[in-house]
Design brief:
The protein has about 300 residues and is an alpha+beta fold. It is about 30% helix and about 25% strand.
């Protein structure tokens, strides 16, 4: 007997009727309530009665110390409104504020401290964003009766579903090709279609697409200092060099010291070729003249 996977109904309510306004997300049958605000709608969010309840919150935005990276702060409070206002005033990087409470106000201080500690733990494990939290809550702070722990873990599972829907990948696991680095490349990419770029300079790169992310594999090479005027990803490339993800091979090439997940084939191609590039054409199925675009269109027809 195999486990069935059931769909979920997520209700996304536009509080003021505008897609750029305050949003409220819920899941049918779950007491959790998630509010999502920008800087412009932050005031509207903290004025909500639900946000005065016990809960957790997240502030997220571009990481000022890593080009193309994201930064987040995770907190908990008996009164989310007051604490999130204080945290927002102390941090300038955030662009998105998320407040998580419940419709029946049944979370205790112990519950939200457990949730806060687990969210920080899960965010560190996912490695999607750098955290602005100075310290991680200790295990002592997370002690709850067994039944309460089980309830909070279920709460987290629902929150893990909602956050990507509202545009926050804080807890989304890294692709297997990135996360399982102790395994061989062949093991991590087993069953995946592999793509490659073979440039006339001799630069050669390999990648796989997994769960909507384009992962360039370790050992792939990238051109350096080609002098092209137009390269929208030059800052990202510089940050990869500073982070030690791209390392020097010689005067003309870098090498990927570890796998790296790009948001698109074009972003990956631009970093590798050191110029703006249409990755859908530059990348080809490994050992084939078929471009990524041709391969993708073929998948849509099957």
């Amino acid at each position: 007997m195999t486990d069935e996977v059931f769909g979920r109904t997520i209700q996304l309510f536009l509080v003021d009727g505008s897609p750029s306004g305050l949003r409220k997300a819920t899941i049918h049958g779950w007491t959790g309530v998630v509010f999502v605000a920008s800087g412009a709608t932050f005031g509207a969010m903290v004025s909500r009665a639900e946000v005065q309840r016990t809960g957790v919150y997240i502030l997220a935005g571009p990481d000022p110390e890593a080009i193309g990276g994201m930064r987040a702060y995770i907190g908990s409070a008996n009164d989310v409104r007051e604490r999130i206002k204080q945290s927002a005033q102390q941090r300038s990087f955030w662009e998105i504020a998320v407040a998580v409470t419940t419709s029946d106000d049944d979370l205790s201080k112990g519950h939200v401290e457990y949730l806060e500690a687990r969210l920080i733990e899960m965010a560190y494990a996912a490695r999607r964003m750098s955290l602005d939290n100075a310290t991680s809550p200790t295990g002592q702070r997370r002690r709850l009766p067994e039944a309460d722990q089980a309830n909070m873990e279920q709460f987290l599972l629902n929150l893990k579903i909602v956050l990507p829907v509202i545009g926050l990948d804080l807890l989304k696991p890294q692709p297997r090709a990135v996360s399982e680095v102790t395994s061989s490349v062949e093991t991590r990419t087993l069953g995946e279609v592999k793509f490659e770029i073979r440039h006339k300079s001799g630069v050669h790169a390999h990648a796989v697409e997994e769960d909507g992310e384009f992962v360039v594999l370790e050992g792939s090479q990238a051109l350096k200092d080609q002098g092209h005027v137009s390269n929208s990803y030059a800052d990202l490339k510089e940050s990869l060099v500073k982070a030690g993800i791209l390392v020097d091979v010689d005067d003309q090439r870098y090498s990927f010291a570890q796998p790296y997940s790009f948001k698109s084939p074009s972003a990956a191609a631009a970093v590798i070729l050191d110029r703006n590039s249409n990755g859908r054409i530059e990348w080809k199925v490994e050992g084939s003249p078929q471009t990524y675009q041709e391969w993708h269109q073929a998948q849509l027809m099957t």
